[in-house]
Amino acid sequence: MAILVRLFAIAIAYVLACTAAATVLTLGTLSTAGNDVAALDIPSVALWGVVGVSATIIAALAMLPALLVIALSEGFAWRSIILYGVVGGVLALALAYGIDFAGYLGGPDNGLAREREVLAASGIAGGLVYWLFAGRNAGAWK
Question: What are the extents of the domains in the chain?
Answer without folding.
Answer: 2-137
